C-alpha cells in the first residue's frame, strides 16, 4: 500500500467502529466521501473516508459491517484504491459494476439496522437505502453524531477562513441582481423560500469567496432565499468583517449556523412553501422541514443553471485567464522538451515547475486541483497524485501526462496534455491519435438547442470503440468562474445526466485512454457553448463549441494517416490560433519552441 497519511489514517479505527456498532445494535454503517455541503474537495475535518480506509480520492464511499467492509470507487480510482487501501480489511469495489446499495442488499437481513450521518447524505442519495431497508425489513436510522468523529481525537478544526467580497470586474452582476432574478422565478412557481446549501451556489449568489476547502474558493454556509430577493445567510458571524457586511447589504440577514434549526422550524410552523434540491441538500435539513410541517416543493438548486450560463463579461475574463494560463503551460512544455530527455526530471519536479510558473501569473489565487503529473505507468492512474514514495523520473520512450489548472480572480482553468519523452511507439501514436479524433469530434460538432451532453458522448469514443478500446471517466464536466473546477449542471457523460447545453456554459472536452501498467493518454481543453450558424437549408437554431484552452498538442504523437482532411485542418487551425495569441507573450526561447510546436502537420 501507498497511503497518504496526512489526514492521519488509523488502521485501528475499523475495530473501534465495529465495537461501537455492536454496542449500539448497528449491522451496517455508511461512510461517504462528503461534508455537510456536498463539496468535491473536503476540508481536512471532513476526510472521514480517508481516516477510516486510507483512500485519498475525491469520490468514493465505504460500508462497514461486522465481518465485511468495502470501499466503492468509480473508474478514475480503480488503480489508486488498490494502492492505498488494505484489501485484507476493505474490499475495493468498482461502483460501475456494483453500487453500494446492491452490495448491501446481498448481505442485509430482516431486523438489521443501517446507520448513517444525515448531514452527509442527501435525500436522493439515501433513497435507495430507504427502499432496500423497506424491502428486506431492516431499519435505516440517521444518527445525531458521526461515529468516526468519536474516535478522532486530533480531528482538525472545521473551516473558518475569512470571507471576502468579490467585486467588479470579477463579479459583473451584483448579488442583489442575482437574488432578485432568482426570487422572481420562485415567485412564478409560488415558492416562498429556497434552501441554498451548496458552497458554490452560496459563493456565486452572494459574490463571496473564502478558503474553506482546498483548491476551490468556497464559502461553506447555508442560506434561505426568499421570493422577494431577500435572504438569510447562516454562517459563523465572526468570519465577516464590516466590509463584507456592507457588501451584503440590508436585504441579507446574517445569523449563526446554530440558528438554522429554529429558522427551519419557523418555516414549517408558518406552512411556508419551501424548495430544496434532493441532490444537494443534507437529509437532516429535509427531515427537519418535513417534521416542522413545511410545504415541500422539490426542485433543482435555483442558482446552478444561471451560474453555469456565463454572461459575455464573465467570458471575457475567462478568456483572459486562459491566455495567461496558456503562457505558463507553454513555457513549461518548452522547458520540459529541453530537459526531460536529458534525464533528472521527475514527476514532482515537473509539477513544481509548472505550479511555480502559474503562480507568477496576474490574479493567481492557487491551483484548481492537485496537479496530476504521471509518467509511464503512473499516467495510467486517472487521478494519480504523486508522492515521495511514488515519484519517478521521466524516461525516454515513455509518455508523460500532466493534468493541471489554476484559480484566477477572472476564471478557473483545467487542461491536460500528454507528451512523448523521446520517440513514442507506434501503439502510443495510434492510441493518442484515436483520443485526438474524439477530442476533435466534440470540438467541431454543432447541435440543436435542447441537446444534453450525454447525446454527444459517443463522438468522443467512436475512434476508440472501433478497435475495442474505451475509457471509464466522463468526457466533460462543467467549470465555474473562480469557483469549482468540477461543476454542474452540464456534463458530457455516458451516465445520461446533466442539463441541456446552453450558450455561455463552460465544459471540458477530455477523452482519454489508459493502458494499466504502461501509460495514460488524455487531451483536455475547456470549451464554451456558443451560437452556431444554421446550416444552409437548416430549420433549427444551432449551437457549437469554442476552445478556451490555449496550448499545443504534441505533434510527435499524432499518426497523420489516421486523420481525415477535416481533422488535419482542425489541428492546424487550433495551433495557428495558439501561436497567434501566445507568441507575443512568451519569452524568446519559448517562442522558438512554440513556433515548431504549432507548425502545420503537413510539415511533420
Q: Let me know the number of strands.
A: 28
Low-pLDDT parts are 1-5
CATH-level-2 architecture of the largest domain:
Alpha-Beta Complex
Number of helices: 17
Indicate the overall shape.
Answer: globular
First-to-last CA distance: 44 Å
Total number of distinct structural domains: 3
CATH topology of the largest domain: Creatine Amidinohydrolase
**For the residues shown, what is the average pLDDT?**
95
Strand content: 15-25%
Oligomer: single chain
Q: What's the name of the CATH homologous superfamily of the largest domain?
A: Creatinase/methionine aminopeptidase superfamily
Rg, nearest Å: 25 Å
Helix content: 25-40%
Query: Regarding CATH, which class of the largest domain?
Result: Alpha Beta
Structural class: alpha+beta
Q: Sheet with the most strands?
A: 6 strands, mixed
| Strand order, largest beta sheet | 4-3-2-1-5-6
Describe what you observe in this structure:
- The protein is 32% helix and 20% strand.
- The chain has 604 residues and is an alpha+beta fold.
- The protein has three domains: 13-151, 3-Layer(aba) Sandwich (Creatine Amidinohydrolase, Chain A, domain 1); 164-307, 3-Layer(aba) Sandwich (Creatine Amidinohydrolase, Chain A, domain 1); 309-599, Creatine Amidinohydrolase.
- Strands 4-3-2-1-5-6 form a six-stranded mixed sheet, sandwiched between helices. A six-stranded mixed sheet has the order 12-11-10-8-13-14, sandwiched between helices.
- The longest helix has 28 residues, at 312-339.
- The radius of gyration is 25 Å and the shape is globular.
Amino acid at each position: 500500500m501507498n497511503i497518504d497519511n496526512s489526514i492521519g489514517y488509523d488502521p485501528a479505527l475499523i475495530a473501534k467502529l465495529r465495537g461501537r456498532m455492536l454496542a449500539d445494535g448497528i449491522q451496517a454503517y455508511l461512510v461517504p466521501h462528503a461534508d455537510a455541503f456536498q463539496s468535491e474537495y473536503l476540508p481536512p475535518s471532513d476526510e472521514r473516508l480517508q481516516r477510516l480506509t486510507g483512500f485519498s480520492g475525491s469520490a468514493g464511499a465505504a460500508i462497514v459491517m461486522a465481518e465485511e467492509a468495502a470501499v466503492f470507487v468509480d473508474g478514475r480510482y480503480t488503480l489508486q484504491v488498490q494502492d492505498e487501501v488494505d484489501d485484507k480489511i476493505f474490499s475495493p469495489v468498482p461502483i460501475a459494476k456494483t453500487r453500494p446499495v446492491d452490495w448491501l442488499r446481498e448481505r442485509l437481513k430482516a431486523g438489521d439496522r443501517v446507520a448513517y450521518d444525515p448531514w452527509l447524505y442527501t435525500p436522493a442519495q439515501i433513497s435507495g437505502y430507504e427502499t432496500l431497508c423497506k424491502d428486506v425489513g431492516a431499519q435505516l436510522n440517521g444518527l445525531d453524531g458521526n461515529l468516526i468523529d468519536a474516535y478522532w481525537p486530533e480531528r482538525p478544526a472545521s473551516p473558518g477562513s475569512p470571507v471576502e467580497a468579490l467585486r467588479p470586474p470579477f463579479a459583473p452582476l451584483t448579488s442583489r441582481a442575482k437574488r432578485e432574478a432568482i426570487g422572481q422565478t420562485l415567485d412564478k412557481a409560488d415558492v416562498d423560500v429556497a434552501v441554498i446549501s451548496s458552497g458554490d451556489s452560496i459563493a456565486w449568489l452572494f459574490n463571496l469567496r473564502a478558503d474553506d476547502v482546498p483548491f476551490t474558493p468556497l464559502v461553506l454556509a447555508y442560506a434561505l432565499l426568499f421570493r422577494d430577493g431577500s435572504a438569510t445567510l447562516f454562517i459563523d458571524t465572526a468570519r465577516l468583517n464590516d466590509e463584507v457586511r456592507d457588501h451584503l447589504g440590508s436585504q441579507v440577514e446574517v445569523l449563526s449556523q446554530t440558528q438554522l434549526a429554529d429558522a427551519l422550524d419557523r418555516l414549517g410552523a408558518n406552512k411556508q412553501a419551501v424548495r430544496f434540491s434532493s441532490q444537494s441538500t443534507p437529509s437532516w435539513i429535509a427531515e427537519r422541514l418535513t417534521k416542522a410541517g413545511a410545504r415541500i416543493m422539490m426542485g433543482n438548486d435555483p442558482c446552478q443553471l444561471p451560474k453555469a450560463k456565463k454572461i459575455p463579461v464573465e467570458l471575457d475574463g475567462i478568456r483572459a485567464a486562459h491566455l495567461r494560463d496558456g503562457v505558463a503551460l507553454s513555457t513549461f512544455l518548452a522547458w520540459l522538451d529541453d530537459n526531460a530527455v536529458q534525464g533528472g526530471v521527475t514527476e514532482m519536479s515537473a509539477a513544481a515547475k509548472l505550479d511555480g510558473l502559474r503562480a507568477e501569473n496576474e490574479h493567481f489565487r492557487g491551483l484548481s486541483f492537485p496537479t496530476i503529473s504521471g509518467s509511464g505507468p503512473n499516467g495510467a492512474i486517472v487521478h494519480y497524485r504523486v508522492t515521495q514514495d511514488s515519484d519517478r523520473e521521466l524516461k525516454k520512450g515513455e509518455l508523460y501526462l500532466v493534468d493541471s489548472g489554476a484559480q484566477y480572480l477572472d476564471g478557473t482553468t483545467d487542461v491536460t496534455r500528454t507528451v512523448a519523452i523521446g520517440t513514442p511507439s507506434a501503439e502510443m501514436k495510434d492510441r493518442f491519435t484515436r483520443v485526438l479524433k474524439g477530442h476533435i469530434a466534440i470540438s467541431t460538432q454543432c447541435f440543436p438547442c435542447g441537446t444534453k451532453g450525454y447525446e454527444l458522448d459517443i463522438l468522443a469514443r467512436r475512434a476508440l470503440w472501433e478497435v475495442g478500446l474505451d475509457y471509464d471517466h466522463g468526457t466533460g464536466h462543467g467549470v465555474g468562474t473562480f469557483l469549482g473546477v468540477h461543476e454542474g449542471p452540464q456534463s458530457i457523460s455516458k451516465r445520461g445526466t446533466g442539463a441541456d447545453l446552453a450558450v455561455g456554459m463552460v465544459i471540458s472536452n477530455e477523452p482519454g485512454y489508459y493502458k494499466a501498467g504502461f501509460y495514460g493518454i488524455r487531451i483536455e481543453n475547456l470549451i464554451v457553448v456558443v451560437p452556431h450558424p444554421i446550416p444552409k437549408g437548416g430549420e433549427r437554431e444551432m449551437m457549437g463549441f469554442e476552445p478556451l484552452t490555449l496550448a499545443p498538442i504534441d505533434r510527435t504523437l499524432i499518426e497523420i494517416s489516421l486523420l481525415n482532411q477535416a481533422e488535419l485542418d482542425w489541428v492546424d487551425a487550433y495551433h495557428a490560433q495558439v501561436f497567434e495569441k501566445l507568441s507575443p507573450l512568451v519569452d524568446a526561447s519559448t517562442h522558438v519552441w512554440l513556433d515548431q510546436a504549432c507548425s502545420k502537420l503537413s510539415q511533420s
